[in-house]
């Protein structure tokens, strides 16, 4: 029970997690408080929910407790400065500090997301309409980069499944592709090449529909910092970080498995699935352990990487019978 050793952070425990309908009811009650009802009469919100302090840098965007199984890890959240200062967002440069330095120029309004392909309701969503599609939830997920480091980030968003159901995929839709912004005027990294732009990623339909697959609009109780993928990005917690495309502009429903940017760039190293798997080495390094960002003091031990990044109980059955060495 390593989490008991963490200091200064009260970890949520399973019995603390308020089901979403209870939370929603409580929130409605709180909204009614303006009418004069004493707040004390309603009882306090669960303590753990208040543990993530808003950095106070961007517009607030809070979420209720998620009822999705496994949506709140017990691990201590990564300090905001690390989560927003050490990033991969190649459109802004390949150095870990480039996104924080250059993404400030990204314009996140107006912003639209096009829904295309095998759906009964294609169309274009304005970001502000999308924000209201489903109640925001806070999900504290581990994010494990294929490079061997990891973070724990309190995201704010809702399950991608909510949007998928709304646009009604046809029977031909087997894959969901995410196309991210490609704008050389705002993104200095595009000129350098390296990857195929726009950055594209994709999931199998059942992966996309899994309740843990999150469309995130915020983090740390505020709207997403640009360097983390504002105004919306995907977060697939059991896959390597690169599956979680930032600054999405298009979601396409496809019959055939599409190629992803990393597959195209380095086919010998990156496959379509890219599930976190400590037993499958990257061709150039081991994936058995990881360094938790924010814990990298002189004596910080590396952590063992967990199968499916620790989400095996929730997602393992999606891959039952698949050879995970072949489908890496
Ligand atoms: N559009 C885009 N999305 C992207 C990337 C990128 O370069 N461009 N990098 C990916 C990689 S490799 C990782 S590890 C995560 C990092 O997310 P974070 O910076 O919010 O931790 O974003 C992913 N999404
Ligand atoms: Mo990554």
Molecular structure report:
This protein is an alpha+beta fold. The chain has one domain: Oxidoreductase, molybdopterin-binding domain (Sulfite Oxidase, Chain A, domain 2, Alpha-Beta Complex), CATH 3.90.420. It is built from 8 helices and 13 strands. Strands 1, 4, 5, 8, 9, 10, 12 and 13 form an 8-stranded mixed β-sheet that branches. It has a 5-stranded mixed β-sheet with strand order 3-2-11-6-7. β4 and β5 form a beta hairpin. It is globular, with a radius of gyration of 20 Å. The two termini are 30 Å apart. The site of molybdenum atom has 6 residues, from loops.
Show the helix and strand layout.
Blueprint: H1 20-31, E1 64-65, H2 80-83, H3 98-102, E2 112-117, E3 123-126, H4 127-130, E4 137-144, E5 149-159, H5 160-167, E6 175-180, E7 200-204, H6 205-209, E8 214-219, E9 222-223, E10 233-235, E11 248-254, H7 261-265, E12 289-292, E13 303-304, H8 312-315
Bound molecules: ligand MTE and molybdenum atom.
């Amino acid at each position: 029970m390593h989490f008991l050793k963490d200091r200064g952070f009260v970890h949520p425990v399973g019995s603390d997690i308020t089901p979403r309908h209870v939370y929603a009811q409580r929130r409605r009650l709180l909204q009614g408080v303006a009418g004069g009802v004493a707040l004390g009469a309603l009882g306090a919100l669960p303590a753990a929910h208040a543990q993530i302090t808003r950095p106070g840098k961007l517009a607030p965007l809070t979420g209720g407790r998620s009822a999705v199984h496994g949506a709140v890890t017990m691990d201590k959240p990564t300090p905001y400065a690390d989560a927003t200062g050490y990033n991969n967002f190649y459109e802004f440069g390949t150095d870990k500090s480039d996104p924080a330095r250059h993404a400030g120029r990204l314009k996140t309004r107006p912003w639209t997301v096009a829904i295309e392909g095998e759906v009964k309701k294609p169309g274009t969503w304005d970001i502000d309409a999308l924000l209201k599609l489903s109640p925001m939830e806070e999900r504290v997920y581990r994010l494990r980069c294929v490079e061997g480091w990891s973070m724990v980030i309190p995201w704010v968003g809702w399950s991608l499944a909510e949007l998928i159901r709304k646009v009604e995929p046809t029977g031909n839709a087997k894959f969901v592709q995410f196309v991210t912004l490609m704008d050389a005027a705002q993104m200095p990294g595009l000129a350098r090449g390296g990857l195929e732009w726009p950055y594209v990623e994709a999931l199998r339909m059942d992966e996309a529909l899994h309740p843990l697959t999150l469309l995130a609009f915020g983090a740390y109780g505020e709207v997403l910092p640009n360097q983390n993928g504002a105004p919306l990005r995907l977060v697939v917690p059991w896959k390597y970080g690169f599956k979680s495309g930032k600054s999405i502009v298009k979601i396409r429903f496809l019959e055939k498995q599409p190629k992803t940017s990393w597959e195209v760039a380095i086919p010998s190293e990156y496959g379509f699935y890219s599930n976190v798997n400590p037993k499958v080495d990257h061709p150039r390094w081991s994936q058995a352990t990881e360094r938790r960002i924010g814990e990298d003091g002189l004596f910080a031990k590396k952590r063992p990487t967990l199968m499916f990044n620790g989400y095996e109980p929730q997602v393992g059955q999606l891959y039952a019978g698949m050879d995970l060495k072949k489908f890496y």
